[in-house]
Amino acid sequence: MWSQDDFVAVVPVLLVVVAAIAVLLAESFRRKDERMPMGWLSAIGLIGAIYTSLVQWDSYGEGFGVLVTDNFAVFFNVTVCAIGLLTVMLSAGSARRDHLPEGEYHALLLFSVAGMMLMASTNELLMIFLALEIMSLGVYVLTGIKRTSEGGAEGAFKYFVLGSFSSAFFLYGIAMAYAFGGTTRLDELAMEVARDASHPLLMFAMVLLLVGFAFKVSAVPFHMWTPDAYQGAPTLVTGFMSTGVKAAAFAAFIRVFLSTLDLMHQDWAPILSAIAGLTMIVGTVVAVAQSSVKRMLAYSSIAHAGYLLIGLVAASPDGKGAMLFYLVAYSLTNLGAFGVLAALSTNDRPHDDMRDFAGLWHERPGLAALLTVFLLSLGGFPPTVGFVAKYYIFYAAVQQDLIALAILGVLTSVVSVFFYLRIVVQMYMTTEVAPGHRPPPSRLATAGLIVALVGVFYLGVLPGWLLEVAADSVASIF
């Protein structure tokens, strides 16, 4: 029989799903040209999920045998719900300007967030796969939700096709894991790994699972979908994909590889080290050659996945906590940057080309200043949170004698400053203002940008408490 504890574990996810259903119902009963509070319905569900997740801090429980309420799950539930909430705030005004169907947009956003929460909260490989598909299907549709955009349709199709291949790899990995251990529960599988960590079936399962996760985090050479999907999707959908999907994928990645397959670290660490190095190099070098800002930020996102993989390879207490801190830092910064792009974009000037930012300081000095801060944080300048996040990742690598990865990370970070500063130069050092209208952001979008700005500086100056929370949360899965 089901108990009260079973339902307590799923309450945060249920609130997000109920909010998504409420949005769909509101859309179905909406009269033509009638405006409905889709954003507020979404925000209520996400805030409720954040609150009910925080209440579960320092309490362990299981729901229906597949969901857990440890600190690790709570941390990522709050993180992905905060990403969703910030996306909803930044969408105010820009979603309507892009002619996006608001009901479908917010519902798909919420269903994707629900999938992300399940990915971080489950201790069952099959449940991870189902959560991955729930998240992915929503994001596939969001990528092509702007029906008049050919680039969006192309990006969504490529994302869907390549995502199907990666899902097949992941599902075969689960099958091999079951053939090895007779179970798909992570805790039971960990006991089987302790008995025989060198079994051929287990090795095969590990490689297939790694491929599935590497695709979702946009690691080289499984990154091919990223530039087209990021460029074709509406701007804020791109920001949501680059942060929420990455956070959820790394949550499951950490739970599977640093807990269940931790005894195989000597087997998968060299593979991930090579992938991390390639990811940083390819992401940084190719970004330098881009003239499209969204495409440049796509390759930048690939490079940041490489930095996160360093923490996974290090697998030390410092490295594990640094990964979680980095995900929060990157989410705040990247969503802020895409929020500014979305606020500036119009149909006649999408602000996807470097030249579109010419003279922005003279016309919209506030947005220019915000974008500068977010770009500098992505580049790792102090006193922003981006600097602190990179410092702790590289410090964890040095502690584990991963000197080559740390040096490569520092060098690629230095190179990345070039393509971030190209936009800054256009904004401040070009006297000629690019033609076209630059609308002011809505009040709610402005509030979202200010929240991101405060977070970037606050965590850049006082990161200690979040680092402690990150370390406590990741320690709960061991």
Protein described:
This protein starts with a helix and ends with a helix. The chain is mostly helical and 478 residues long. The longest helix has 32 residues. It has one domain. A hairpin with a 3-residue loop joins strand 1 and strand 2. A two-stranded antiparallel sheet has the order 1-2. Helix 1 packs antiparallel against helix 5, helix 3 packs antiparallel against helix 11 and helix 3 packs parallel to helix 14.
Which percent band covers the strand fraction?
under 5%
State the helix count: 20
Largest sheet: 2 strands, antiparallel
Rg: 21 Å
Which descriptor suits the 3D outline? globular
User: In whole angstroms, how far apart are the ends?
Assistant: 29 Å
Overall pLDDT score:
88
Portion in helices? over 70%
Strands, total number: 2
Question: In total, how many domains does the architecture comprise?
Answer: 1
Residue windows where pLDDT falls under 50 for at least 5 positions: none
- What is the H/E string? HHEEHHHHHHHHHHHHHHHHHH
Task: State the secondary-structure class.
Answer: mainly alpha
Strand order of the largest sheet: 1-2
What's the arrangement of secondary structure elements?
Layout: H1 4-29, H2 38-55, E1 62-63, E2 67-68, H3 71-91, H4 94-97, H5 102-121, H6 125-143, H7 150-181, H8 186-195, H9 200-216, H10 226-232, H11 235-260, H12 265-288, H13 293-314, H14 317-344, H15 360-363, H16 365-379, H17 385-399, H18 403-429, H19 443-461, H20 464-475
Antiparallel strand pairs: 1-2
Helix pairs in contact: 1-2, 1-5, 2-3, 2-5, 3-5, 3-11, 3-14, 3-19, 3-20, 5-6, 5-11, 6-7, 6-11, 7-8, 7-9, 7-10, 8-11, 10-11, 10-13, 11-13, 11-14, 12-13, 12-18, 13-14, 13-17, 13-18, 14-16, 14-17, 14-19, 14-20, 16-18, 16-19, 17-18, 17-19
